[in-house]
Write a structure and sequence with these properties.
Layout: H1 4-20, H2 28-36, H3 40-45, E1 49-54, H4 59-72, E2 76-79, H5 87-96, E3 108-113, H6 116-126, E4 130-133, H7 141-144, H8 147-159, E5 164-168, H9 172-175, E6 185-190, H10 192-201, H11 203-206, E7 225-231, E8 234-238, E9 251-254, E10 267-272, E11 277-282, H12 288-309, H13 315-322, E12 332-338, E13 341-346, H14 351-363, E14 367-373, E15 402-406, H15 410-419, E16 426-428, H16 433-443, E17 449-454, H17 456-469
Parallel strand pairs: 1-3, 1-4, 2-3, 4-5, 5-6, 6-9, 13-17, 14-15, 14-17, 15-16
Antiparallel strand pairs: 7-8, 9-10, 10-11, 12-13
Helix pairs in contact: 1-2, 2-5, 4-12, 6-8, 12-13
Length: about 475
């Protein structure tokens, strides 16, 4: 099956060459190693403490949160920092990212973002201690297929492990994975009262029809009844036929719905309902979707600590306290200072992600302009028709006065913005993106921010151009 040592040597050589060329070296070293040693992941993972994070949205941000939290708790964490989450990226992480020589072996943890489809193939090799599943939204149907298929892929991966699983209770597809795995499942989510308050105070922004992909019980094919929703198909639901309903949330987040989660330091509480303990926190990365990500991170870290330390007392409080060390991840709410002005990058790759990002920008007090960057490479999904499933219309009046579009499919995005009733102030391919951005920066008042919403390859391309043109630091040089 191949030898680990030669494969690792080849990976390190490949990484060195790529770094000399100014490349990030996040996947190719792993591809080389897998070719030489097909079972390299199982060899590398054996005996290690591993947490995996999978799902549609929030993987990279939540992985980064968990990493920051565990480091503040004294662990040495190895992670796939760039979000390279296929087998090749995870192999690269194992072989090329090493703990320090002085690290306590009992304090080394691997926190690995894992692609949904890849998870099914490599979960058995990884044998994680904790598997976190964030949510399932329609994304790259040309690659993943229908959401029930994606759910089944993840569930099959879970069944190849003995891991404790942490599931989003408010996502009916994710929560359904715990039905036959209740002995190892814990759930997190937003409290029903908070969702009810939010729906009452902000009906246009928060009550959305559940996506047709998740509106029906997968067992009975009967439409769910909802008491309230947070966004998309996330909410408090019940199947009127079989009775499957939102499970009891062990980790439950609440907040004052009259406030604005787009504000930095937004206050909220998380309750460990199993131990009747509540902690009050401040949101470290703004945005309502990051309330879910923070709750997910606290849940996963608490469960990991309980497994690792063989106890429960006080560990939830430790996990909550550690959230205050969190900072934004590469390309996810990453705020970059350019003189006295700011650029903020929010990755978007599907209808719900773009909808949440537009809501965030619409509510942001520092938003001066908006740039939408759309590509259609294989990693993005060739079909960009999903932009028509995004509710621009209810937010467009609150978006910044200047809107720019770029990317391979700038024409599609320009048409979508035009149909919402707004005029695009500048447009062009990615080669023109930095010119558009420099113009936006020159017109931006001090203290204000230009929000950039790219999909995946557009983010990588644009981030590379910003490194070159604005002298920013590459993510792998942090």
């Amino acid at each position: 099956m191949g030898l680990k040592a030669p494969a690792q040597a080849a990976a390190l050589i490949t990484k060195g060459i790529l770094r000399i060329m100014g490349r990030g070296a996040t996947t190719l070293p792993g591809k080389v190693a897998i070719r030489m040693c097909p079972d390299i992941i199982s060899k590398c993972a054996k005996g290690k403490k591993i947490i995996t994070i999978t799902g549609t949205n929030g993987k990279t941000t939540t992985t980064h949160m968990i990493t920051s939290m565990l480091r503040s708790l004294g662990y040495e964490v190895i992670t796939n920092v760039s979000g390279a989450n296929l087998a090749s990226g995870i192999t690269t992480t194992f072989l090329c990212e090493k703990p320090s020589k002085t690290a306590d072996p009992d304090k080394i943890v691997y926190v690995l973002e894992t692609d949904e489809a890849a998870f099914a193939k490599i979960a058995k090799d990884l044998q994680p201690k904790v598997c976190l599943v964030t949510n399932l939204f329609r994304d790259q149907l040309d690659r993943y297929g229908e959401l029930t298929h994606t759910r089944d892929l993840i569930a099959n991966g879970i069944d190849d492990t003995s891991a404790k699983i942490v599931l989003n209770a408010d996502d009916s597809l994710v929560a359904s994975m715990g039905k036959t795995r209740s002995d190892r499942a814990s759930y997190y989510g937003i409290s029903l009262q908070t969702m009810l308050d939010n729906n009452r105070l902000h009906p246009n922004n928060t009550i959305l029809e559940a996506s047709s992909d998740a509106a029906f019980c997968p067992e009975c094919k009967v439409r769910y009844d909802y008491q309230a929703r947070s966004f998309g198909h996330l909410g408090d639901y019940r199947c009127p036929s079989c009775g499957f309903a939102t499970p009891v949330r062990r980790f439950e987040l609440s907040y004052d719905a009259s406030g604005n989660p787009s504000d930095e330091g937004f206050p909220f509480t998380i309750t460990d309902t199993e131990h009747d303990v509540t902690d009050t926190l401040n949101l470290r990365i703004a945005g309502s979707h990051n309330l879910y990500n923070t709750c997910a991170a606290v849940s996963a870290v608490t469960r990991f600590l309980e497994i690792d330390r063989g106890e429960e007392d006080g560990l939830f409080e430790q996990a909550c306290k550690s959230t205050q060390k969190i900072e934004a991840a590469f390309g996810r709410m990453e705020k970059i200072a350019v003189g006295n002005k700011f650029i903020c990058i929010l990755l978007v790759k599907n209808p719900v992600g773009l909808d949440r990002a537009l809501s965030f920008v619409a509510q942001s007090s520092d938003a001066d302009s908006l740039m939408l960057v759309l590509n259609s490479n294989t990693a993005d999904g060739k079909d960009v028709s999903w932009i028509w499933d995004v509710d621009f219309e209810s937010k467009v009046d609150d978006l910044p006065s200047n809107i720019y579009v770029s990317g391979q499919r700038y024409g599609d995005m320009m048409l979508r913005v035009s149909y919402s009733g707004r005029t695009v102030d500048g447009y062009g391919s990615l080669d023109y993106a930095t010119t558009l951005l420099k113009g936006a920066i020159s017109e931006c008042p001090d203290g204000k921010c230009i929000y950039i919403l790219p999909n995946y390859t557009a983010m990588l391309d644009l981030r590379g151009r910003l490194v070159k043109d604005l002298k920013l630091k590459d993510f792998w040089k942090d």
